[in-house]
Write a structure and sequence with these properties.
There is one protein chain. The chain is 34% helix and 14% strand. Helix 5 packs across helix 6 and helix 5 packs across helix 11. The structure holds phosphoric acid mono(formamide)ester.
């Protein structure tokens, strides 16, 4: 590795694909986070480039809109000297009726090393692994998982709190449609945090307890003494039937205000994966407060994605 630092965990990272945090042990999560922490300083250099992935070809295949994930994967790849190529559904031959499998086979025929995919259908990245030779990284699939987001969330909390074990992490909002919530619940729980969730009953899926989360009966129960308060966007694009009365009512009952944050620990972190619906799930003064680490999440997204690209290429 040419990042100027060496890995110290001694962990053998054996994953060719990153499909979900559900497949990562605590040891592997820790190894990814340590690798990301060691890569972070590259983004602070005046010349932000190392030759680590020179000669590698990375394809960003995005079938849903994205700002943070797509850009940070592309920045991560470029900072490691890989060649990157972006395909959006709207400008691909999918608009002419080509199936995803045919698209995948044709991309694979061009010998990329890594394919990063975002798709509205849960399970698409796993399906892709059966048709391509490249490593596949899930950049968000339906309501299933968003593993790189979960990892950058854990990195951000560990950076500010110095640990993950024993923390109270509260997630409020549309848990039902949130792949971020699923990755965070699995990841934080696996790393020893206690995860509490709260939201409208129609947006809380059954079976969350099996993932280790505590489903709360009130906003106060969820937020009181929390170390981390994470709010989630209402995902209108995934709701065919309305599951909420109005956004105004949602903001009144579930929106995180200064008064709500007063229930949490004084040093609690405010987090949001983005994009934020300001004034709905999170009030602007809280989003922009000194407790907010939302932009740190974006910064750490680059470091985590550099680590994932590096590790799936067999660099342990
Ligand atoms: N957090 C996240 O996935 O943001 P984007 O949709 O902008 O990638």
């Amino acid at each position: 590795m040419n990042s100027g630092k060496t890995m110290t965990t001694g962990c053998h990272f054996s994953h060719k694909h990153i499909l979900g945090i559900e497949h990562l042990s605590a040891e592997h999560i820790d190894h990814i986070l340590q690798t990301a922490e060691s890569f972070k300083e590259i983004s602070g250099r005046s010349i932000k480039k190392v030759p680590t992935l020179r000669g590698r070809t990375i394809v960003n295949l995005f079938f849903e809109p994205s700002t943070r994930t797509r850009l940070s994967f592309e920045i991560a790849a470029k900072r490691m000297s890989a060649d990157t190529f972006n395909i959006s559904a709207s400008t691909s031959s999918a608009t002419k009726g080509e199936t995803l499998i045919d698209t995948a086979r044709n991309i694979s025929a061009m010998h990329p090393d890594i394919i990063i995919i975002r798709h509205s259908c849960s399970g698409t990245p796993e399906m892709l692994t059966r048709y391509v030779r490249a490593s596949v990284i899930n950049a968000g699939d339906g309501t299933h998982e968003h593993p790189s987001q979960g990892l950058l969330d854990m990195m951000t909390v560990r950076e500010h709190k110095g640990r993950l074990d024993g923390l109270k992490v509260t997630i409020i909002g549309d848990i039902l449609h949130s792949r971020v919530a699923h990755s965070d619940i699995i990841g934080f729980t696996r790393m020893g945090s206690r995860v509490f969730v709260y939201g409208p009953a129609t947006l809380i899926p059954v079976g969350l307890e099996k993932l280790g989360a505590v489903v709360c009966g009130s906003l106060e129960e969820a937020v009181r003494d929390a170390d981390v308060v994470m709010t989630l966007r209402i995902q209108k694009e995934r709701q065919s039937d309305p599951l909420l009365p109005t956004f105004r009512e949602y903001a009144q009952n579930y929106g995180v205000t200064r008064e709500v944050m007063a229930l949490a620990r004084n040093d609690a972190l405010v987090m949001h994966p983005g994009p934020i619906n300001r004034g709905v799930e999170l009030m602007p003064d809280v989003a922009d407060s000194s407790q907010s680490v939302i932009l740190d999440q974006a910064t750490n997204g680059v470091a985590v994605r550099m680590a994932l690209l590096y590790l799936v290429m067999g660099n342990t």
